[in-house]
Amino acid sequence: ILQFDWCVGQIMNTIDSLHLSDNTIIIVTSDNGPVVDDGYQDQAVARLNGHTPAGPLRGGKYSLFEGGTRIVFIARWNGKIVPGVSDALMSQIDLMSSFASLTGEILSPEEGPDSFNHIDALLGKTGKGREWLVEHSGRLSVIKGDWKYIEPGSGPKIQVNTNSETGNNPDPQLYNINIDIGEKHNVAGHNPELVK
Fold first, then answer.
1. Nearest to 96 by CA among 67, 69, 117
2. Which of 23, 79, 107, 160 has the most CB atoms around its CB within 10 Å?
3. Whole-angstrom Cα distance, residue 136 to residue 158?
4. Which residues is 164 bridged to in the sheet?
5. Distances (CA, A) of 137 to 70, 125, 141
6. What is the pLDDT of residues 82-125, one digit of tens each?
C-alpha cells in the first residue's frame, strides 16, 4: 500500500507539473475487495495488528459479500469533478458508455450492451447511478435499491486460502445493505416476494 500510494503520488505530481491536470481524469480503483493472504509469503496476516481491510464489510476477494465486490473508486479531474463522496451505484463496466458520452463517441448496440452512461454521477453532478447491479463470484448476486440478493449455492463457506467468507449458502440470502452494510442479518425468510 505504501508503494502504491507513492506511485499514485508520483503520477499525480507529474501530471500537475506538466500542467495537464485540467485535461486528465485520474481514477484509482480495484478489481475486487481486499485480500490479505493470497499466497504471498509477506507476513501480511501476522502484521494486521487489529486492522480490518474491508472495514465493516463482510467477506473479501472471492466473496459474494460486499467485502468482495464493493470497491474503492476515487476520481479526480480538476475543475470538472465536484469533490465529495457519492452513494451513486456504478460499475466499472459503465466507464465505457460514460467516457463515450464524454468524448462524443457513439457506441453501437453490440459495444458494451451492459454499460450505462453515468458521466453525471462520475462528475458529481448527480447522486443517481444505476438502479441495479449484477455481481459475480462463482454465482450471481443482485443489488437493487437498498437490497442485495445472493442466489443459493453450494460450496465452502470459507475460502481456505484467504480465510474469508465466500457467501456460499444453500438458502437464498437477502440483505438491506442500507441499514445492514455488514450483511449480518439475512432477511430472505421474512421477504419471500422481494426474494422472488
1. 117
2. 107
3. 17
4. 159
5. 12, 32, 8
6. 889 999 999 999 999 999 999 999 999 999 999 999 999 999 99
